[in-house]
């Protein structure tokens, strides 16, 4: 059974950092497209960072470029989202997602899609002073 479980969301002050984790079970992350998405109240879900497996190309949204990075730990079958210099506009529920088919797509295209196969339950990030 495919399962994704996010953790690490918290309240943080502007300029602070957080690392989100997404533990996968029931499949290997190496063979899937992996994405981090976020959804703020009243806004559509947006792709933040997407990667094809552990060593594939990575797409980073302009809004988080030079601040957020993604890393895949194959041993732990876990994907991480490192978020630095957080700003109030980063406040959102963050979700990880995986999709077998999107592994064959370009990451910008995949990150723009919302119909990924597997989603976690989300973790809340609040950036406020």
Arithmetic mean of pLDDT: 94
If you compute it from the alpha carbons, what radius of gyration comes out, rounded to the nearest whole angstrom?
13 Å
Report the strand count: 11
Beta content:
over 45%
Structural class: mainly beta
Percent helix, as a range, is under 10%
N- and C-termini, Cα separation: 40 Å
Largest sheet: 7 strands, mixed
Give a brief description:
The chain is mainly beta and 129 residues long. Helix content is 4%, strand content 46%.
What does this protein structure show overall?
- By secondary structure, this protein is mainly beta.
- It has 1 helix and 11 strands.
- The strands form 2 sheets. Strands 2, 4, 5, 6, 9, 10 and 11 form a 7-stranded mixed β-sheet that branches. The protein has a 4-stranded antiparallel β-sheet with strand order 1-3-8-7, with no helix packed on it.
- A hairpin with a 4-residue loop joins strand 7 and strand 8.
- The mean pLDDT is about 95.
């Amino acid at each position: 059974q495919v399962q994704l479980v996010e953790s690490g969301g918290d309240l943080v002050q502007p300029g602070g950092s957080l690392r989100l984790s997404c533990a996968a079970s029931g499949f290997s992350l190496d063979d899937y497209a992996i994405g981090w998405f976020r959804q703020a109240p009243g806004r559509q879900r947006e792709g933040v960072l997407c990667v094809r497996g552990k060593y594939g190309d990575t797409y980073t949204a302009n809004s988080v470029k030079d601040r957020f990075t993604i890393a895949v730990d194959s041993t732990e079958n876990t994907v991480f989202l490192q978020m630095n210099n957080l700003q109030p506009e980063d406040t959102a529920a963050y979700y990880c997602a995986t999709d077998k088919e999107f592994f064959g797509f370009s990451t910008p295209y995949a990150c723009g899609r919302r119909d990924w196969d597997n989603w976690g339950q989300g973790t809340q990030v609040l950036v406020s002073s």
